[in-house]
Amino acid sequence: MRIHIVGRQISEVAALARDSGLQVTARTPDVIVCHGGDGTLIGAEREFPGVPKLALRLDSECRKCPRHRTANVLRQLARNRLVASEIMKLEAHVRGRRLLAINDVLIHNANILSAVRYKVWIGDDLYSEEIVGDGLVTATPFGSSAYYRSITHSIVRSGIGLAFNNSTEPIDHIVLSESERVRIRITRGPAIVGADNNPQHVQLSEGDEVTIGKAAETATVLALDTLLCNHCRRQDGRKWNRHGALMAL
Fold first, then answer.
1. Among residues 34, 76, 120, 155, which is most buried (max CB within 10 A)?
2. What is the mean predicted confidence (pLDDT) over 117-136?
3. What whole-number percentage of the chain has pLDDT above 90?
4. Mean pLDDT, the chain, integer
5. Is 222 helix (H, G, I), strand (E, B) or coil?
6. How large is the average pLDDT for residues 22-32?
7. Is pLDDT at 167 greater than 90 in this prediction?
């Protein structure tokens, strides 16, 4: 099996991969091994869309049980014993461009001293008259443990999460079905829209519209079962909640 490695400590991971019988190459890899954190996986999917990804946490920063240590997971990859999962992507259409995200699409005020004003439609129905705040977040279930969770203190199990960031009037977050599409019109900018950690965001001005919904494409992620099992959490010694998120001490 041919793999390409991205992220941190590449030479160390490459040595373990070769010991497992994997061929390390940048040419037409069968799998992209992402060694680092969520940002490494997100960036790899943007650079190599459609190629299966194996996400590995850093052994030096994340205590793992023997089964989930990097060397063993690579051996299981070489033996074709990993399970593939399909992760939903979001697409955002704006100003003739199409942005893709596996975590979230964010609309945010471009000037930290000035709120953005906008209206939101869900399908053809106006959801809210003008909203004033820092913007909004649309998240996939995979990405809902990031920015969406910091706003709502919750995650999404299925569908698309919609959270309103620091609005002047309280607006509850909502979870939409995967078939729904959200349209946002900027009534006062400036604002920006971005997807995941892509540095190429789009500037928004008054009258600009962004349409967000489920993309046809998915991301394929390989794993034994989960990135951090209960045995790993016990070895780590810190407190984790049932969603796999680190709890404050």
1. 34
2. 95
3. 76
4. 88
5. strand
6. 93
7. yes
Helices (H), the chain: 10-19, 38-47, 70-78, 147-152, 230-236
pTM (predicted TM-score): 0.85
In a shared domain, residues 50 and 126: no
Domain-located, residue 245: no
The answer to whether the bond into 52 is cis (omega within 30° of 0) is: no
In terms of residue numbers, what domain contains 172? 89-217
Supply the angle between the helices 70-78 and 10-19 in degrees, to the nearest 10. 50
32 vs 234, which has greater pLDDT? Answer: 32
pLDDT at position 95 = 94
Which of 196, 232, 192, 228 is CA-nearest to residue 210? 192
Say how many domains are in the chain: 2
What mean pLDDT do residues 174-194 have?
Answer: 96
Looking at the structure, do residues 109 and 187 belong to the same domain, yes or no?
Answer: yes
Domain assignment present for 243: no
CB 178 within 8 A of CB 160: yes
Residues 117, 9: Cα–Cα separation, whole Å? 44
Give the separation between CA 43 and CA 29, rounded to whole angstroms: 16
Tokens of 54: 């194996």
**Residue 37 pLDDT class (50, 70, 90 cuts):** confident
Q: What are the respective helix, strand and coil percentages of the chain, to the nearest 5?
A: 20, 40, 40
DSSP 96: T
Cβ-Cβ contacts under 8 Å for 78 (sequence gap 6 or more): 1, 20, 21, 22
- Where does residue 36 fall: left (phi above 0), alpha (psi -120 to 50 degrees), or beta otherwise? left
* 42 & 107 share domain: no
